[in-house]
Amino acid sequence: MFEGFTSETIRLRDSSAFVRHGGEGPPVVLLHGHPRTSATWHRVAPRLAERGFTVVCPDLRGYGRSRGPAHTADHTGYSKRAVAQDVVEVLNVLGHDRFMLAGHDRGGAVALRLVLDHPEAVSRVAFADCLPISEHLSRITAKFATQWWHWFFFAQPDVPERVINADPDSWYRGDPQVMGEENHDEWREATRNPDVVRAMLEDYRAGLTVDRRHEEADRAAGARITCPALALWSLRDDLEDLYGDPLKIWADWASDVRGHGIDSGHHMAEQAPEELAEALSAFFAP
């Protein structure tokens, strides 16, 4: 995977970030979702590099080979604000103070926080198969709670750790033929690590508490995404089924937003890499 890319671990103030980067040209940052690592981009990142971008793929705080601080009762160490700060610091270490950004799933929540907290750092942002966390929570229905029950299970103290770590391979099911064998092996190694599992759960616990408060404070203050935004969603997942047109929701957050569906399941970087790479490259280099 990632032929021609450099892999390194960058030490930060209270965390360390494993990152892959390669290519030449304007910098693009790709943020993965749950429960993946940066390896999920192994079919997209080289395509973007071939199209003339410098591509940076970090493992989010606590995921994969990145590590975060000790866990606290308020979950702030794994808030999207803390993770977004990691991304900014990583890019600064790599010599980039302004970049383009794409986030999938939980990485999309980090991308939203980053572009709101650091608008000067992001020239364009893309969101893949995600909405703001507060928008999900304000639309809770029986259907949402049934299909997305894991959000609320993950928020419970201690129990999900015991359940998942008892048999992580059964809990986190993945197909090496779909994912790619190297990506699958890296992902399976990560999900077998109890420290990674705990950090991923802290991501969700922060989502229902501190992250929601941050987003609601932004809305109350009238904060908006001021750079151009792209929203993409999987046509074979449930985002559109649950909420209708995602663009209508994103339009409440962004002054300039466009987007469309991708013929894929949820993990579009693995299942529809060419279509996703084409959509991102067209948006990042109009």
List keywords for this structure.
286 residues; alpha/beta; single chain; 16 helices; globular; 8 strands; eight-stranded mixed sheet
Give an overview in words.
The structure is a single chain. The chain has 286 residues and is an alpha/beta fold. It is built from 16 helices and eight strands. The chain has an eight-stranded mixed sheet with strand order 1-2-4-3-5-6-7-8, with helices on both faces. It is globular.
Summary?
The chain has helices at residues 45-50, 80-93, 106-117, 133-138, 142-147, 150-154, 159-166, 168-171, 176-179, 181-191, 194-208, 210-221, 239-243, 246-250, 268-271, 273-284, and strands spanning 6-11, 16-22, 27-31, 54-58, 99-104, 122-128, 229-234, 257-262. By secondary structure, the chain is α/β, with parallel strands linked by helices.
Q: Over all CA atoms, what is the radius of gyration?
A: 17 Å
Give the biggest beta sheet: 8 strands, mixed
* Strand fraction: 15-25%
Characterize the overall form.
globular
Number of strands: 8
Mean pLDDT across the residues is 97
Q: What structural category characterises the helix and strand content?
A: alpha/beta
